[in-house]
Write a structure and sequence with these properties.
Elements: E1 2-3, E2 6-7, E3 10-18, E4 26-35, E5 39-50, E6 60-70, H1 75-118
Antiparallel strand pairs: 1-2, 3-4, 4-5, 5-6
C-alpha cells in the first residue's frame, strides 16, 4: 500500500460472515497482522444491513468502520507524514466506497434490464 513517504507492506486476515437465508446481509472483518511501518494495528469492519423500511426493494445500508493505530509519527517529521497518511487513507476510502456504489448500481441495472426483458408487459 502507498501511505506516507514510502510503500507499506501489510499482512491482513479477513473473515467473511454471511447471514443465513439471505444474500444481502453479511459482514467482512479485516484485521492487520503485520505492517512494515506506520501502522501498529488496524481493523476494518464492513456490514451490509437490509433496509427493512422498504422491504419490496433490494436496498441495503453498507456500514464501514475503520480504526488504526500509527507508530512513529511523532515530532515534526511525524506530523508531516501523519498528514499525508491520513489524507491518503481518506482518499482511498472515498474511492473504495464510490467504486462499490458504482458496481452495485451497475449490477442493479443489469438485473432490472434482464428482468424487464423476461417479464411480459
Amino acid at each position: 500500500m502507498k501511505f506516507g513517504l514510502k510503500p507499506t507492506l501489510r499482512i491482513n486476515q479477513a473473515v467473511i460472515d454471511h447471514a443465513e437465508g439471505t444474500d444481502r446481509q453479511g459482514a467482512v472483518v479485516v484485521k492487520q497482522l503485520y505492517a512494515s511501518h506506520y501502522f501498529q494495528s488496524a481493523i476494518d469492519i464492513s456490514v451490509c444491513v437490509q433496509d427493512t423500511a422498504q422491504s419490496r426493494q433490494k436496498g441495503f445500508y453498507l456500514i464501514t468502520v475503520k480504526g488504526a493505530r500509527q507508530a512513529g509519527l511523532t515530532g515534526v517529521k511525524g506530523l508531516l507524514v501523519r498528514k499525508v497518511v491520513v489524507g491518503r487513507t481518506l482518499s482511498f476510502l472515498e474511492h473504495s466506497l464510490e467504486h462499490t456504489r458504482d458496481d452495485l448500481q451497475a449490477g442493479s441495472h443489469a438485473v432490472t434490464e434482464a428482468t424487464d426483458a423476461t417479464v411480459p408487459k
